[in-house]
Specification:
The chain is an alpha/beta fold and 462 residues long. The chain has helices spanning 2-5, 52-72, 153-170, 174-180, 200-207, 231-236, 249-264, 282-293, 321-325, 359-364, 388-404, 448-458, and strands at residues 7-10, 82-94, 97-108, 119-127, 134-140, 211-216, 270-280, 299-303, 342-345, 370-375, 433-437.
């Protein structure tokens, strides 16, 4: 890719090790070397965007083209079709509630390159006794059946009561024995064998009556540069190398979520108008990319996304553009993105200031739909590397798209240059654009209940 772009030397990214000679900057006084960001509501030719119609007709398509060409890549026209099937099914109890879980396989048409086989994997979990179609969240996560929860005292009592009722149904004479021995228990807390860790977010979603689809990104596209000639990117290119404007892994993962959405909208158990997408860290970037480019997603929960997500490229705090153009992460992005980490090359030296767009404009592509930006705190492991302050600034700046489209933003104004991040657990949830920094680490689990209350209210669901 460097040869294709005429790049002779890339700058190394800063280190997360504070003792390293090239340690990342965490000094707020040095965090804004490029304080003026591209204006969200100004066209490339200088015309102001003055109406919702102009946004939809001109500005949004312009931003989409810039992000595709320079940052995340175009999806080639030859991207394969996907055929989904239910591979297996299982009835489960999640948080004490009955659910139906299915393993889904999405086969990518590989007739043009039979040597490259790609099958996307997803696990669909739906409430067993829903009274109608349910909203659903696609989550980037390993596609496996949810692990059963270890019962607490209340759950054990419920199971014990059910067991006794079943035995009485079979043999009514047992009633006198149960009455004489009220302490007799068939199920006790701690009596179950150890189970693998479960995702409490799935429990919270199903408890609220939502469906969940766990989408395995590794089955779509490998998370490394060596895999670019395999997966959906390699299949589309018939094993050849990418060209600079073609998609990277983030866009491929988002494309996979869109193909799963194609299938989910055919399922009568699912409310097709209220399907969202979620991810944390690199998957948080992918969730934002998926929702930005595919307007069918009704909502997005963006967890701790950092550089390449909600964090501005122009901020010098923690992770930088050069970290994404380096050997460890370049495969996430379009080849063209390497230009902005160039020290020497055919096009000269380029920096983050040369990128024609920034993170606030990517987030704005979700407007007027629902977007919840989630972070944790550095003290609990959501590293300062992610630049929580910068991400809040970008969310503030993006709000202009929501207000232009007659929706509500964070309600804190739009001057990103002067805002300070609010204290953790401050709920900025009145608008269709929401922000909350929880007191946990590198996860969005502590924000899931808050997200559900907010999303249920916004979609008019009790």
């Amino acid at each position: 890719m460097m040869r294709q772009l005429g790049i002779v030397q890339l700058r190394p990214g800063p280190s997360g090790d504070p003792e390293a000679p090239n340690a990342a900057n965490y000094d707020p006084a040095r965090a804004n070397p490029y304080p003026v960001w591209p204006d969200l509501l100004t066209m490339q030719d200088g015309r102001p965007v003055t109406s919702a119609a102009m946004w939809k007709r001109e500005r949004r398509p312009e931003l989409v083209e810039l992000f595709e060409r320079e940052i995340y890549g175009h999806v080639p026209p030859a991207a394969p079709s996907v055929t989904w099937r239910v591979d297996s099914a299982d009835r489960e109890y999640i948080g004490g509630r009955p659910a139906i879980a299915q393993q889904l396989i999405g086969h990518l048409d590989n007739r043009a390159s039979p040597q490259i086989a790609v099958e996307m994997k997803a696990t669909l979990v739906l409430p067993a006794h829903a009274k109608g179609p349910v909203p659903l969240l696609i989550m980037f996560a390993p596609a496996r059946y949810p692990a059963p929860s270890q019962p607490d005292a209340r759950e054990a009592a419920r199971l014990d009561k059910a067991m006794k009722a079943l035995l009485l149904q079979r043999d009514p004479s047992l009633a006198s024995i149960f009455a004489a021995h009220p302490g007799l228990a068939f199920v006790e807390p701690g009596s179950f064998p150890p189970t693998p860790p479960r995702d409490d977010r799935v429990t919270k979603l199903t408890a609220d009556g939502w469906g969940v689809a766990l989408l395995d990104t590794a089955s779509i596209q490998a998370d490394d540069g060596a895999g670019l000639r395999e997966g959906v990117i390699g299949l589309t290119n018939q094993g050849r190398a990418r060209t600079p404007e073609q998609w990277g892994a983030l866009r491929a993962w988002g494309w996979g979520a869109s193909r799963l959405l194609d299938y989910l909208t055919t399922r009568p158990e699912i409310d097709a108008a209220h399907v969202g997408v979620e991810g944390v860290s690199r998957w948080g970037k992918a969730a934002l990319v998926a929702a930005a480019f595919d307007e069918r997603f009704a909502m997005v929960l963006i967890g701790s996304s950092g550089e390449g997500g909600v964090k501005p490229h122009r901020r010098n705090l923690g992770e930088q553009v050069e970290n994404l153009t380096g050997a460890g992460s370049y495969h996430w992005m379009a080849g063209n993105f390497l230009k902005y980490g160039t020290e020497r090359g055919r096009l000269g030296r380029k920096t983050a200031a040369d990128i024609p767009v920034d993170a606030h404009e990517l987030l704005a592509l979700v407007a007027p739909r629902l977007a919840f930006v989630s972070y944790g705190i550095p003290a609990q492991g959501d590293a300062a590397w992610l630049d929580q302050q910068g991400s809040y600034m970008a969310t503030i700046a993006a709000g202009r798209a929501w207000t232009l489209l007659d929706k509500r933003d964070l309600g804190r104004g739009n001057d990103y240059r002067t805002v300070d991040i609010p204290p953790p657990t401050t709920d900025l949830l009145d608008g269709e654009l929401a922000w909350r920094q929880h007191e946990g680490g590198h996860t969005d689990a502590p924000n899931m209940e808050t997200f559900l209350r907010w999303a249920d209210k916004k979609i008019g669901r009790r």
